[in-house]
Amino acid sequence: MDSGQQNHQNVVVMRHGDRIDNFEPLWTEKAARPWDPPLVLDGKVRAFCTGKKFKSNLGFPIHRVFVSPFLRCLQTASEVIYALCAVDDCATHMSSADGVSIDTSKLKVSVEYGLCEMLNKRAVRAENAPKDGNFAFTISECEAVLPEGTVDSSVERVYKELPKWEEPEEVARDRYKSIIKILADKYPAENLLLVTHGEGVGVSVAAHTEEHVTVYEVEYCAYSILQRTMKEKESNAAGEFKLCNQGHTGILTMPTPPRADEIIKEPEPPSSS
């Protein structure tokens, strides 16, 4: 964090890269796990280049990464980590496949079930979902996708298991909002990167702006930047997270009118009688 009496904690919330089933619709017909598509090559390149942008433009280091167990998020996190931890900032490197050497002491990464996709038919096509509702993730297999030497297996997961299939949308949104704060509170002296899904990124914006906004599109590898003040020597050390002014790249919003119960009505004029 920043030095001085008033420090800041930063949390970057990022969507995964380009998933294969949105470019090759027939992929799901032969896939063993049609609910868990990998990235296409362009998705890996986009993720790596986003990581390079983080390294040069964020203005603060990433100390710790948490990632959804879905393969597209694991692969995205892997590419970002390669970019952030690269020993040589070579302009010709476009993905980890280009022989990028990394310093594994730069940051640590852990899998967190609480960052997973909304487990309902709005987010996972019904025909692709497992018939028994078991998405069958194994932490060790998830960790094997991440760069060797960067995984922190000692971290205790907030969510010990996935949400149940047919998770209501509002419950999922509350989950995303909650997991951001829980992870940040758990590591208050560190800046975090959370690699998740479009809805999670949308919640990070809508829940941390003073205006009423609706997020209607989150592009691949889009991200928000949340920041809060950490005051030393006070019992309530952490302030509220706020969205940075330029901290929602690739996220499209529109104003939303407040709910009826939030509208303050003007007083009626006095009667003339």
UniProtKB/TrEMBL annotation:
This is Uncharacterized protein. It comes from Smallanthus sonchifolius. The lineage of its organism: Eukaryota, Viridiplantae, Streptophyta, Embryophyta, Tracheophyta.
